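Quick one:
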Amino acid sequence: AARCRPRAPMRPHAPERAWICAATLLCFAAMAPLAPAALAAAAEDPLLRDVTELVRIPSVSALPEHAKDVRAAAEWFVARLKRTPGGVFASARVEETGGHPVVLAEASEASVAHLDAASVATVTIYGHVDVQPVDPLELWDSPPFELTAGEMGGEAVYFGRGSTDDKGNLLAALAGVEDLLAETDGRLPVRLKFFVEGQEEIGSPQLSAFIASKKEVLATDYVFSADGTQPGLGKAGVVLGLRGAMAMQIDVQGPERDLHSGFWGGAV
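Output:
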C-alpha cells in the first residue's frame, strides 16, 4: 500500500490531495492481479519488463558479497528514472552514505514551471532496492531472482525476491507518475522527488546521518512510501499513520563471581 504522512502544520490544497489519491490509484492499477489468460500478454508490458530486470539483480544488503549488486540495483533505477519521458528525472543520481548507496532525483523545473513556487507542496516518493537473503534455497519453487508466473489463492501472481518488497511497488509508483505525466503533457501538480535507499532490510544504519547532512536537498512536505501492503487484491488504500519501531540495549553490571540466591545473593 502507499503511505502518506503529512508534516504539520502543512495542509494540502484540494488539487494536491486529489493528486496524492490519484497517484495511489495509478500505482495499484499498475499492480492489479492478472487473470491467467492475460499472463502471456503481460510479458510485453513495460512495467513487467522493468520488474523482471530489477528482480534479476540479487541486491541482498545483509551479505557483503552482494554489496556490488545493491549498487547495481541503485544504478539500474537511476537509469530507469532518466528514461522518464521529457527528461523529468534527468537529475537522478547515486549518492554515497558510507554504506549502501541511495538514489536521489528531483523533478525538472520545466515540469513544475507552471506552479506557484511560493505555495506549491513537495512530495517525496520513498522506496528501497535492497532485498532479504533467499536461504534456504530448497524451499523455493522457482529461482528467487527470476520473476516467475504462478498462482496464489486462486489469483495469477508473480514470484521473485523483491517483487513486492520493494522493487515491484517502487516501479509501480514510477509507472503511476509517468501515467500522470502522459495525461498532463509533462506537467506535475506538485514538486516531486524520489528517495530510494539500498539498506532498508538491514535497518538503514547510515541513513540518519545521511539525511542530516542533506536537509536542504531532502526537504519535503509529504512522504509517499511505496513500501508496504495493500488491503486486498484489487483494493487500494492509503495509510495515514504508522506506529514506528524502537530498539534498545540494556547493559547490566554484576559481581565478579556468581552469588547464591540465599542470604548473601538476596541482599545484593
